[in-house]
Design goal:
CATH topology: Glutaredoxin
CATH superfamily: Glutaredoxin
Order of helices and strands: EHEEHEHHHHHHEEEH
Number of strands: 7
Radius of gyration: 17 Å
Strand content: 5-15%
Oligomer: single chain
Number of helices: 9
């Protein structure tokens, strides 16, 4: 699990305000108000799967979180195949960047065409170590494949509306749902922290499906 850790965005020539009011504290599993959880963040939700699925799984993740990368590279493909693609689960991904570099990566993903968002998030996690070590050049290589010019790339990471939108969504998650580590999941409102094994997700999702039947 990745806990709060801020670092400078090297090489991107971008000043991102520090995120106020966030502290790393221990939490216990909780069940949150689903109606409140389903309120989209300011920039809207990025989701996969059947909107009418009986189970909704929300993930709060940071682009630079190694545990999030492990989940998306190893576990998520199985969840997608077994539950999302079969219409049983709707998956919602919400940005929760713990540092300036993660913020920039998410801003760039938001600037891409909507149908490219999840493929780009996948590439960001697959190549996480590579672009973290050389942010500007490697991020530009990734987003150039999505049609970004250098002008669009630079404009995107300076877009204050995107910055504030992601930041406000993060702060609401921290304040209302007490999210303070990544990845944090809510399966029909029930919290599950960390990049758990696929068996844990299956148990929780199957129980939620049974309860909703």
């Amino acid at each position: 699990m990745n806990t709060l850790n801020r670092r400078s965005l090297l090489g991107l020539g971008m000043a991102i305000a520090a995120l106020p009011g966030l502290t790393a504290t221990a939490t216990h599993a909780q069940t949150v108000n689903v109606a409140k959880l389903m309120v989209p963040p300011p920039l809207g939700d990025m989701a996969l799967g059947n909107p009418k699925a009986k189970v909704t799984m929300v993930e709060y993740a940071s682009a630079t979180c190694p545990h999030c990368a492990h989940f998306h590279n190893v576990t998520f493909p199985k969840i997608k195949k077994e539950y999302i693609d079969t219409g049983k689960v709707r998956f919602i991904f919400r940005e929760f960047p713990f540092d300036d570099l993660a913020m920039a990566a998410f801003m760039l993903a938001r600037c891409a065409p909507k149908d490219q968002y999840f493929p780009l998030i996948g590439v960001l996690y697959e190549q996480q170590q590579k672009w973290e070590s050389n942010p500007r050049d490697e991020l530009f290589k990734i987003f150039k494949l999505a049609g970004f010019t250098e002008k669009k790339f630079n404009a995107c990471i300076k877009d204050k509306k995107l910055l504030v939108g992601i930041k406000d969504g993060m702060l609401r998650a921290e304040k209302v749902f007490h999210v303070n580590s990544t990845p944090t999941f809510f399966i029909n409102g029930e919290e599950l922290e960390g990049a758990q094994r696929i068996e844990t997700f299956r148990t929780r999702i199957d129980a939620a499906l049974a309860a909703a039947s």
